Amino acid sequence: MTDEFDLVVRGGDVIDGTGRPRFAADVGIKEGRVAALTVPGVIAGKETLDARGFVVAPGFVDIHSHADWLLPLDDHGEILAPMLRQGVTSLVVGNCGHSLAPVTKDSTRLADVSSEILRDRAFPYTWRSTAEMLDAIEGRGVAFNVAFLAGHGTIRQSVMGNAPRAPAPGELGALRRATRDALREGAFGLSAGLAYKPGVFAKSDELASLCNVVAEEGAIFTVHGRAYVWISPFYKPMLLGAPHNVRSVDELVTAAKRGGARLQLSHQIFIGRRTWRTYPTVLRRIEEAVASGVDVAFDAFPYTVGNTTINAILPAWVLDHFEERIRDPKVLARLRREFAMFRLALGLDWSDITVTWGGGKASLEPLEGLDIAAIARRLGVSPFDAYVHVSRESSGAARVLIGTYSGDDSDEEPLRAVLSHRLCAFETDAILTRRGRFHNPASFGTFPRVLGRYSRDLGLFSLEEAVRRMTSFPAERVGLPGIGRLAPGYAADLVLFDPLRVGEGGPNAVPVGIDKVVLGGHVVVDRGATRLDRPRGRVLRRR
């Protein structure tokens, strides 16, 4: 044998990402790519990793991440190290309608406000277009493979600010041109966040028109829907007809069908105990859409809590001119009545909402880690007033964890049904910064938790199927070139894990059973210790 490979991963059980059964093989790596997959013991390399007792899988693809505003920072690898430690080698960013580009001189201020909960600290926008942004990020180097989506909200801000109305014909033309430009400059798709300003103001005709551009360019439309609850402020009549989360899926499927676009429903969740019962209907609607010819799938995280902005559950009529309305007694009186009705109707308690970051306000720091009910007791006010206080004082920037996402500690039936579905890709939806003292557990344990708790322990799906839906499936949905499989010619991004031990390590802890993570042929995680001597990732561009 000669040392024809830079690195040989020897003696492991390969799960190649396609879903087929594992097999014993050695992996030969050369110049950052998989060059050989052979029977054990016949190839040699300049370096060797002993993989005996471990599964060797492709690096995990996080199809829904919010790392955008960290990537321009020199220390983004250190901040995002928990993602590497759980085996993530590729990030899809620009989700929920917010992206780094395209921006104008005037819209950067609006983009900063929209991204406040996603940022670690401020930085200058040295770009305007998507192409300029990709060049800038690439020039600094990245600690992951990164694929960018263009945010509908960001594009809308660059054309018409945060105007709470439908675009005029000329503005719609500008939105279409900006979307097409972003896709042709390397973005893999268009994302929308229909519960966030300004996406919340977009109607179905606007979405369908932009889906048409996405379809013409062969890209994908990913979307945070208007409603993940059975009743909301977004659809009328409120109490008659289908549950609102079902209407949301119907609206998005219809927009994608009208425009001809491939559709990815972001973080499919069911919020509130009285929403859980709707999960069979939502999943059936998605299956019916597929049967009718719509290319649609979804993604989800394996936790019953999720991170978002404190304003995410406010209705659109409050978000328009928010700073004024959140101080208007008449507005607050109406909002108090609506919140009382919605909380009762949803089965969502004030104790289900925990503040993890107070938006950088010193007065709110003592409240971080407390739920709204506990904050109310501390302040001596009602829970509603405590919620408004945090929202108002943080200018809507406070970050929260909301519980009852598809279950709770005593009942995970909706969550397990979602995770088990063949159309579900696994994702983190994580917001990971140095801000605040409390973080989303998905930032630390998503993929090990799927492999351990839901595959090995509960047997919801095979280990091979779990790996497929965290590697080749999301890579193919987004269109990532040379990513997501362990096969000759693919990127040498690997995860070595112990199938008997793999699992999350607890809150903010290193996961268990992840032995090594390889990125571009280089070991970047070794038994929980990261090697960040230089960026090993790549900026991916749609061809």
From TrEMBL:
Listed InterPro entries: Amidohydro_3, D-aminoacylase_insert_dom_sf, Metal-dep_hydrolase_composite, Metal_Hydrolase, Metallo-dep_Hydrolases_sf
Segments forming domain Amidohydrolase: 47-525
PANTHER family assigned: COLLAPSIN RESPONSE MEDIATOR PROTEIN, HYDRANTOINASE/DIHYDROPYRIMIDINASE FAMILY MEMBER
Name of the protein this chain belongs to: Amidohydrolase family protein
Species this chain originates from: Polyangium mundeleinium
